[in-house]
Amino acid sequence: MDSYEQNRSPTPPIDMFSEEFSEETQDSLNPPVIDLYGVLNVSKEATEEQIKEAYKRLCRTFHPDKHVDPENKRAAETKFQVIQRAYEVLTDPTKRTIYDMFGEEGLNTSWEVGTRLKTPQELREEFEKQAKLKKEHEVENLVKSKGDIQLSIDATQLFDPYDSVSYRRKNISSPSSIFENIEVTQLFLKHSFETQIKPQTQAFVVGQTIIRNGVGGGNIVGSIRHTFSPHFWAEVGSSVVQPRITTAKANYSFGSDGFFTVSAQSQTIISPPNLSFTAGRRLGENTSGYLSYKTGAWALGPWGQNDSYSRRERSSAAIGINSSMEKSGYGLEIQTSLTNSYISANYNRKLFDIYQIRAVTTLSTSSGLTAILLGERKVAENTKLAIAIEFGIPGGITFRCRLSRLGQRITIPIHVSSEYNFKIALWGTLLPVITIVAVEQTILGPRRKKKAAEKLAILRERHAEFISTRKREAEEAIRLLQPSVERKVEAEMTKDNGLIILEAWYGNFAHIKEASTENQYGDVFDVKIPIQALVFESQLIIPGGYSKSNIIGFYDPCMGERKQLKIKYHFQRKLHEVIVEDKVPLACPLRSHIVPNNR
């Protein structure tokens, strides 16, 4: 068997961030809590047998009875207490369920969940119920209610290219005259909420109204959705007032790789409902594609032949592809129809890690060429502000401002030109981009880094004793591991497929340019011995989901900053090298780790 193929847990792609400081610096000044899974180096899905095996391996080194030297015995007792607690919690179904959901705080809380004869699944359900009841009141109004207000403004009189300069000066020389030259053309209001009727049944109510040039109307739509299984749900709905519209929709998912959706909409019983079919499938790790077909108005024999009201609905077919990555994404859609065929492309990307930039271009047989450039930023804890410019031929130019907070959204489109104007389009896109980049580079970016550095300094000063203690404990663990690691290295060297760790460093490598200078910086820590100690049967497995500083023999040398693990190792007489993020799982050996030409 191929020695590489024995490893079934490949390492995910390295996740590279542009920020030097981690989220824990931004969110908290508290020292990290020890993760019990990390202590035993097991995954959060580990079985009881896997936990016991990991515990036995650690006991061979850290059980106090294994040491005679008083100093080593004292150090082993300290480590063994942590190992023993991790084992006791993770092998007790009740304690493990509480720990998985609420951490150490949950273990120190008194829970009234019935008799001790309940299964782990029943206990988990009861804990989840209590947690849900505790938070239900806080989040009820945040997630179950959504509102949308859109106020459309016509400001073309302010930018009318046919107006003379003298007329413009005369009419917009004061704030009051500016308001005289703008007009509110449309007001759109929409509000929706949902409620849980039964565990698998939800009810939705949507009310909306629109007023355009003094004339308006509205409707209320209610629907009920029932989830029959994890893969299938269906819903039916109807409007309350005229025009009476009845809808039905069903969705079936094929695991995480595909789905199929069918929907129907009818305004009258004298013709068949308009049908829509959509099928989607995952095409790659971050890419999916879909096909869609709408029947429009159609007839089944005599049924629907005399219905002229819905004949404006025409059939259409569309195909699209979407890709979504951590910091960017794109989409492409092509639709063909008797009334409106188009091709649309969009691209979005994170800028400076706080701005979301989105560009959309559409070429349509009905509305011509349209392009939209949108920028969005989080301005408060639950608030986002977005500004966009939309220009089209022949649609003109429109600026949009959108404020979103906790499901509530206000949008103000301002129509500034009824024709395409190159100067307005240029300055409407170029000036905001230049302003954002300049302000970000000269003011906001340096200010954020300064605040993060100040917070980091406070964090390390406040917990200097904690960091020093953790470093001493890590060095003591390395001293205890040294003899067994030397024997393990000798055993690995006798194998044809032995895995030998040459170097291993843990910490922040942002300021380190050469591999030979790692030990000159306090932001990294030599973990060669702890990593070699984790090698079992010529394989190294480190589960993800928790910080590697929890592993015995590790400590956090750069609290509050981004951390990585860098390893160089020999396998099958070839040099390998890998760098992984702190909470990303690691599996060695892998062919992807081979250093080209053994540099």
TrEMBL record:
Q: Which InterPro entries match?
A: DnaJ-like_C11_C, DnaJ_domain, DnaJ_domain_CS, DNAJC11-like_beta-barrel, J_dom_sf, Mito_inner_membrane_organizer
The annotated regions of Acidic residues compositional bias extend over 17-26
Q: Does the keyword Ligase apply?
A: no
Where does it live in the cell? Membrane
GO cellular component annotations of the record:
membrane; mitochondrion
Q: Where is this region: Disordered?
A: 1-28
| GO annotation (BP), single | cristae formation
Query: What are the alphabetically sorted keywords of the record?
Result: Chaperone, Membrane
**Which CDD domains does the entry link to?**
DnaJ
Per the database record, which ranges form the J domain?
35-103
| Broad class of the protein's primary localization | membrane
Record protein name field: DnaJ-domain-containing protein
- What lineage is on file? Eukaryota, Fungi, Fungi incertae sedis, Mucoromycota, Glomeromycotina
